[in-house]
Amino acid sequence: MKKSIIALTATIAILFSTNNIQASTPNSELTTIEIADAQLQNVYDAYFTVKDALIKSDSKLTSAKAAALLTAITAVKMDKLKSNEHTVWMKVVKKLTSDAKSISSTTDLKKQRETFKSLSKSTYDLIKVSSPEQPIYKQYCPMADADWLSKEKAVKNPYYGSSMLTCGNVVETIK
């Protein structure tokens, strides 16, 4: 009888510890919405690295960052996007891809900056229908007659770099 009680107690202890381990294990599965948000966030983050490279007037870095952007664009699984994002994605994906390829395939800073105008327009159209994790600032430079997107409110102009770093202003906040 004593051995049966000990065995039963050990069995109950093992069951409780197994249940506690299972209960404390975080769910590693991502929901479809989280996957969609992460996909587009990767595209946005890559866009911002291209912009930052242009601010530094570093054409080789800009080319490399545009190649990373191209990778992020091609990794997007359209069927995982929300319907409003999917609609805009279908409209801008060819232009986004073309612009990222164009920027990545040249080290001519002037050409990169010219193509960045179009890249910014397509990215703006897409981010406008998304729910960005943080406010995104649409900024405008009258000298370049062009917009760009930034995570920071402070203006750092990708079209002129250090020669006119603060030329421009915030024209819209996307939340």
In short:
This is DUF3347 domain-containing protein. Residues 43-133 form the DUF3347 domain. This protein has 175 residues and is mainly alpha-helical.
Describe the protein.
The structure is a single chain. The longest helix is centred in the first third of the chain and has 24 residues, at 32-55. The protein is built from five helices and three strands. It has 175 residues and is mostly helical. It starts with a helix and ends with a strand. α3 packs antiparallel against α4 and α4 runs antiparallel to α5. The protein has one domain (32-174): Four Helix Bundle (Hemerythrin (Met), subunit A), CATH 1.20.120. The radius of gyration is 24 Å and the shape is globular. InterPro entries: DUF3347 (IPR021782). Residues 1-23 form the signal peptide. This is DUF3347 domain-containing protein.
**Reported CATH architecture:** Up-down Bundle
β-strand percent reads: 5-15%
CATH first level: which class?
Mainly Alpha
Oligomer: single chain
Number of helices: 5
Uncertain stretches of 5 or more adjacent residues: 18-29
The amount of helix comes to 55-70%
Write down the secondary-structure element order.
HHHHHEEE
Counting structural domains, the number is 1
Strand arrangement, major sheet: 2-1-3
Mean pLDDT: 87
Q: Count of DSSP E strands?
A: 3
- The rounded distance between the terminal residues' Cα atoms is 68 Å
Largest sheet: 3 strands, antiparallel
Rg over C-alpha atoms, rounded to the nearest angstrom: 24 Å
Q: Looking at CATH, which topology would you report?
A: Four Helix Bundle (Hemerythrin (Met), subunit A)
Class computed from helices, strands and strand pairing: mainly alpha
Q: What is the molecular shape? A: globular
